[in-house]
Amino acid sequence: MRTRTGFLSEGPRVGIRHFTRQDAEEFTALAAASRPLHAPWLFPPTDAGAYATYVDRLLGDPARHGFLVCELTDGRIAGFININNVVEGAFLSGTLGYGAFAPAVGRGLMSEGLALVVRHAFTRLGLHRLEANIQPRNEGSINLVRRAGFRLEGYSPDFLLIDGAWRDHERWAITKEMTERGAAPLPDGKPDRKPDRKRDRRSAS
User: Fold this and answer.
1) Domain assignments of the chain as residue spans, ordered by start
2) Which of 11, 97, 156, 184 could form a disulfide with 112 if both were Cys (CB 3.0 to 4.6 A apart)?
3) Topology given in CATH for the domain delimited by 9-187
């Protein structure tokens, strides 16, 4: 059983933390076992080489922030949520990518994890807006962001190249002001750690 150290923020049942290279075996095993759940929407790495490339990209790019959603009871990984394409300046926005692993489906763990990531983005990372681009038939993903308080902002034909074809996507988004008005629920639990000023100056937007 893992210890509960290393979490950036905790809710009642899950915490979020950064990816590490040491997570390769657990992550890839869960991704491989969850292929029927993920296809045709997303394709997380299922072998050590692909995982290493994936994590190096997350850790090496200040415009990306990767988070593992882990159960507090035993530290097991329930899923992942990444903030990609972070833009600074007047935009202060990032794009979400995420996936649940099969053992976590239907338990509400990813809803709790997403609320923690949204709060982390709008506090520690200093962002103003998060966007999730979702294929219209991906009902599970749409339900996840809807429960989190995201609003449907538009429809983009031929938006992303996925599984060899350009796919239409709905654009869902949430802003810091929406959470302050209570549009997005935040889990009760331990607050985020105090900001790491050195890291925030380098990678936050």
Assistant:
1) 9-187
2) 11
3) Aminopeptidase (3.40.630)
